[in-house]
Amino acid sequence: MKNFLIIIHLYYTEQWKKFCNYLNNIDVKKYTYDLYVSLPKDKSYFSCDVLSSFPNANITLTENVGYDVWPFFKVINQVNLDEYEFVIKLHSKRNMGAITAVINRRFVLKGNDWRNLLVSFISSKSHFEKAIASFRKRPNLGMINSFKLFDTSNEFEDVYHRLFCFNEAKKEIERIGLEPTPSREVTYIAGTMFICRACLFKVLKKMNYCATDFIKANRNNENDLAHIMERVFGWLVTSQNYYIDDPYSFKKFSLRDYYRYEMFYYNDKSVLGRFFRYCRKIRRFIFRIDVFDEKKIIKIFKIPVYKQK
């Protein structure tokens, strides 16, 4: 049995070097793994770059539907999960730009925040070793990633998209013969990157999905199977008597998190809301880091003083 089945969906091929660095955090003297890299069919040319770095990698060409979820299913359907201890799911993710995401009504993520948190369990040798050590010590630990990405959906959601995904995910769990546990709420990794015990994903094969079950990415309509499966992945863990945890982060709601949260939720009509926004404008005028095409530009008083080459 090999230690890891690593599945990377590479839509943004310019991020491949980053994934090479992440994979180098796995000590090949201690662990064995099979690497599967999925590429959209119109980017098949990039398979040469992947194989030049990892000659034994398995290349899977996929239809450009279902974000990173359909490519994940396509690989899962062609492997024997009994041959692996853990599944590592990764995918390329763009900078959020002006978009702001709020996870679990606590953590406000901007720019590269979400992407950096998603790969945090493999972003350093220390984090990765802590994750594996935790799996060894805690037999009921099922899935790992940063606690700041632990989102929840429940049956009382007041946002239609979240309620829709919750109800449909519950139906999917019941369809494959599992009892949704807990029944009224599901915790999941927002962004679908994680390391998980391979045995928990064996039931995915019962779903018998194909490419036509998924739709092309559409940010204006996210009531789709990919976002439903985001919740299903979380329920697969808890419904089989395992749990999700973060064994490597220093768990606390920091002053920075509080500031971002309050600044995001207070409107400009309130005194506190205006105060937070003025503080942000002053800070960004004095010092700011902008990211364009994966390159950092540091500005002081709006004057560029450093540009990453």
Query: Mean pLDDT, rounded to whole units?
Result: 89
Q: State the secondary-structure class.
A: alpha/beta
- Ends apart, CA distance between termini: 42 Å
- The total tally of domains equals 2
Shape: globular
**Spatial ordering of strands, largest sheet:** 3-2-1-4-10-7-11
* CATH architect. name of the largest domain: Alpha-Beta Complex
Radius of gyration: 20 Å
Number of strands: 14
Considering DSSP H and I runs of 4 or more, what fraction of the residues is helical?
Answer: 25-40%
- Return the CATH class of the largest domain: Alpha Beta
SS summary, helix count: 9
CATH topology of the largest domain: Spore Coat Polysaccharide Biosynthesis Protein SpsA, Chain A
Low-confidence stretches: none
Order of helices and strands: EHEHEHEEEHHEEHEEHEHHEEE
Strand content: 15-25%
User: What kind of sheet is the major sheet?
Assistant: 7 strands, mixed
Protein name: Rhamnan synthesis protein F
How would you explain this protein's 3D organization?
It is a single chain. By secondary structure, the protein is α/β, with parallel strands linked by helices. The protein is built from nine helices and 14 strands. The strands form four sheets. Strands 3-2-1-4-10-7-11 form a seven-stranded mixed sheet, sandwiched between helices. A three-stranded antiparallel sheet has the order 12-13-14. A two-stranded antiparallel ribbon has the order 5-6. Helix 6 crosses helix 7 (225-238) and helix 8 (255-265) packs across helix 9. The chain is globular.
